[in-house]
Design a protein that fits this description.
Elements (H helix, E strand, L loop, with lengths): L7 E3 L6 H8 L5 E3 L6 E5 L3 H11 L8 E3 L9 E2 L2 H7 L4 E9 L5 H4 L4 E6 L2 H9 L4 E5 L1 E2 L2 E2 L3 H8 L5 E3 L11 E4 L6 E4 L5 H4 L15
Parallel strand pairs: 1-11, 4-7, 6-12
Antiparallel strand pairs: 2-3, 3-8, 4-8, 5-6, 6-7, 9-10, 12-13
Length: 215
Amino acid sequence: MALTQTVQILKPSLGIVPQLLQHLEQDRVVLLPMDTVYTLVAHGARPQAIAALRQLKNFDKDQPLGMLTRGDRAEEVVQTTPASRRMMAHFPCPITMIMTAQPHLDQGITQGFANIFVACPDPFIYDLIGAIPFPLVSATAKVGGEPITSFQAAQRYFSHLVPVIVDGGVCRYSRRGTLIDFTLPIPTIMNFGPMSVDDLRPLLPEIILPSHLMK
């Protein structure tokens, strides 16, 4: 990935949307804070932007990217179900959903996989999705396999790689969202995160744990 000019530091608010749009529409990758972890984000409908994100992440070709979306925008990128729509009605919340991708998504996102990860963990991301007129493709910012969870680390490791870092301080949860698979007949928690099964059951009474997570 080519080095960029001096990184611009912004604070999270809807007031920065025009600046983010300027970069995203020029196929650049920006680094955003979430309540879970920091994430790299690009224009989800532009092949060059998706390729730039894959290059920055150094993804193998068989790894799909994720999408940031919310209930009223979800059908743009994934096929929803009654259960997933009920879950999205409670967005924002710190979960990641496995869902079936819409067939029109760029192959740079799906890499031939039927399913992708979808998230909307906090109010800033929720509002940003509503203000951006195109889908947002994303990938967790990591160093040595560990996710970035603070602005200090984001600036240290990514300031020479992206044109913009949004300073959200230390992530509220500093861990990935609870992973739920909505492609199964019954929504199933695949990995633990900030929301427990007890937190989720009032929202999705049918939700279950796979056998390897049961004690």
